[in-house]
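Translate structure to sequence.
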């Protein structure tokens, strides 16, 4: 049995005082007599699906925090965020009557400007969920009544 002392208040007889919290390496059904699951009931802290972090400057004692998932917000890419890419140049040319042979052919542009083909849909994107949890094992937090 793994034992973690969170609130060490041992009595003179070697037993555990009321309010002592420890980890139980078993099931909820086999929690020892005189102990209860730390689920927020019976004056226990809500420890189901939670890990413990040391209280101090950033977290106050008994403060609950955190989330199961992290999601990034989708947004439309700016020009600077778009991947480096290029576009094919398009123009419309035609042969004008006259001249002889390929070296004498007259080429005339219908348009006096060049343009590129439109590329990209200007759509927002997101990155989905990413699991950032440390490797862990699920055990049961119990408290002495």
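Result:
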């Amino acid at each position: 049995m793994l034992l973690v002392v969170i609130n060490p208040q041992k009595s003179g007889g070697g037993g555990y005082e009321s309010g002592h919290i420890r980890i139980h390496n078993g099931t909820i059904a086999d929690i020892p007599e005189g102990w209860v699951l730390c689920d927020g009931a019976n004056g226990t802290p809500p420890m189901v699906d939670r890990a413990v972090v040391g209280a101090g400057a950033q977290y106050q004692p008994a403060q609950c925090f955190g989330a199961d998932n992290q999601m990034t917000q989708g947004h439309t890419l700016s020009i600077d965020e778009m991947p480096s890419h290029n576009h094919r140049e398009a123009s419309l040319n035609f042969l004008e009557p006259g001249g002889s042979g390929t070296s004498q052919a007259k080429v005339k542009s219908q348009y006096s400007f060049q343009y590129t083909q439109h590329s990209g849909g200007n759509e927002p994107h997101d990155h989905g969920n990413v699991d950032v949890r440390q490797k862990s094992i699920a055990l049961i937090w119990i408290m002495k009544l």
